[in-house]
Structures
1.
Amino acid sequence: MSEKVLLIPKIENGIVIDHIPAGLGAPILRAIVAHPDARHVVLTLGLNYKSNKLGHKDLIKLDIDDLPASVLEQIALIAPGVTVKRIVDFDVDKKYVMQTPELLVNLVKCRNPNCVTNHEAGIATEYRAINQRRVQYKCSHCERIFFLNELERLAAAAESVVSR
């Protein structure tokens, strides 16, 4: 008889980011520590755990009450479909499945070299989803359409605000 062993112990209070496709834990971790409110948080990162749903997955546990909205937006861009759970007294208090936002404001760079956002300082990039699955986005300035995976995240995106 085999007994399951927890490789990362349960947390009493904090945030668990689960069902991260293998290999995306480190980029999510970078997005978390880039935010000033989460920079000095105690955390645990697990890589390449076996998963019935994904085959292999990554996992992050954080000793923090909540994540800033801008960090959650970054997580949704990096790995849509991950589960974010708030843990209180060892139990799941709230659970969210992250989805890409309908509107991306100052989160990604426009790939059109002629777009005004690439030439004039102070103009925020803005994209709106053009389909239900939110995999294609249209630039509000140059009106070019891109797949989400073609767009490069901005370094300053941790300070952005996105409408959902």
2.
Amino acid sequence: MNGVEKGRCGEDLAVVFLLERGYRILNRNWRVKSGEIDIIAEYGRYLIFCEVKSRSSLRYGSGAEAVDARKQQRILRTAMLYLQRYNRLSSLCRFDVIEILMTSPEHPEIRHIQNAFGA
């Protein structure tokens, strides 16, 4: 499985994971010139901006470690554009990371880190 396929598979798993827990998926791969947000969802009163990181091993670190300060800033800027475009500036927002570790294709490990970072 190449990187693009692994990423798509990880995002599919993350969507199922969130749906099973009562999240409502609003958008996938929402893109603007300045960036992309993998999953945008609602859960209770919160609007969730979720970054999904898929790995086949921990050789180069965890998925959450890949969401460094620069990546966080890009996600925050992109989220602000989403909020402006859809008139959701008063929404309570949360920024999550979902790590997918695919060491075993039959049993991927999913770790949901809520409030992984913020403004």
